[in-house]
Each structure stands twice: as C-alpha cells, then as structure tokens.
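Give me structure tokens for this 134-residue protein.
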Amino acid sequence: MNGEHMQIGEVATRTELSLRTIRHYEETGLVIPSARSQGGFRLYTEADVARLMVIRRMKPLGFTLDEMRDLLDATDRLDAAEDLPDGEREALLERVRGFAKAAQQRVADLHTQLARAEEFAGTLRERLDGARAR
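Here you go.
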C-alpha cells in the first residue's frame, strides 16, 4: 500500500465506526471506497475518512440517511464544480445553510435534554443523600 490509501480497519479506528457500520454506509451509497487492492480489499483516502466523519457527526443529531445523502451531494457538487451557474451554486449553498440551521437547532435541543437529565440525576442524588442521613 502506498500511504495514500488505507484499509477499512484503519478507517474504522480513525473514525471510531465499526467495520459493519462503514460497510452499511457503503451499501447505502453514502461512501464508496476510492479503490480496491489486488486482493479485493476496500481502500480509502483521507477524503473518504472526512466524508465518514461528516456522517458520524450527523448521526447523533438524528439526521436520516437520506438527509446525509442530500447534504453530501450538495457539498460534493460545490467542491467539484468551480464554474457552477450562480443560481445553482446559490441553491446548493441554501441547502447547506438549511442543514447548518437544522444542526444548530438539534444541538440546542440536545442541550435542553442534557440539562433536564442532569437535573433529574441531581434530584436522585439528593434523595439518596437524604436517605443516608436518616
């Protein structure tokens, strides 16, 4: 191997995704290995790892596979075509802005959920501390 490509095990380690999850993302078309070794092993590049990291970061925010695919399609098109017509470029940027806004809202929702969970855990600690004091 030439250092530019890595096998799925290394990618799994770097992305903290399981082999099964990476294969699932391949089956659903979210990520395609950049190459195959002579022995048929999947080979990935840094760009593939970056793509998997986007997917990994979207998952806990509750984005669906279709939403992930939509965002990746928009960013791929923006990255690949320097000479997009202004209308198309703006439409793609607006899609990405929509995802950024949705991500911010989902992060805010998670902060609220975390605060409620911490409050609940604190209530239980207080109850247990009170029971020990008796």
